[in-house]
Specification:
The protein has five helices and no strands. The protein is mainly alpha-helical and about 140 residues long.
Length: about 140
């Protein structure tokens, strides 16, 4: 029997850029790793490691995404950066709480991460799609 994923990548999540779609798929993969770890009742240390990986990848992704938005003169970049900064802070907060045993990484945390990322990709990131599709300087494969 195949292992169920917490989040399945759907083509409708595509932002029209292979590099950024790959980033989003990586974020989803990390969240799925966390889901599997919770389901398999791994240690808090292992969950903290996954949260740390999520934080690092989130920061890497947002930095690159903002760079591309700037290169393609996306008009809503400032607002997008604010949303990114808030998510980085929220992820840092989750990691800090987990490190201090103030929270268990729970179904509530998982639901938050899933809802935030899917909503962000479908609603916010889709707004820059027209700016990037077919533009030079993007790694379109």
């Amino acid at each position: 029997m195949a292992t169920a994923r917490f989040i399945e990548w759907k083509e409708r999540y595509s932002v029209g850029n292979n590099e950024l779609d790959g980033h989003h798929q990586s974020v989803i993969s990390i969240i799925n790793d966390m889901y599997t770890a919770i389901r398999d009742q791994t240690t808090q240390q292992e969950l903290i490691g996954i949260l740390h990986r999520l934080l690092e990848y989130t920061q890497f992704h947002f930095e690159r995404e903002e760079q591309l938005m700037e290169e393609h003169q996306f008009t809503d970049l400032a607002k997008h950066k604010i949303v990114h900064d808030r998510m980085v802070q929220k992820t840092k907060e989750l990691l800090k709480q987990a490190l201090h045993d103030e929270i268990d990484v729970s179904k509530e945390t998982m639901s938050f991460l899933k809802d935030w990322w899917i909503d962000h990709i479908i609603v916010m990131d889709s707004r820059y799609k027209p700016y990037m599709e077919g533009k030079k300087g993007l790694e379109q494969h």
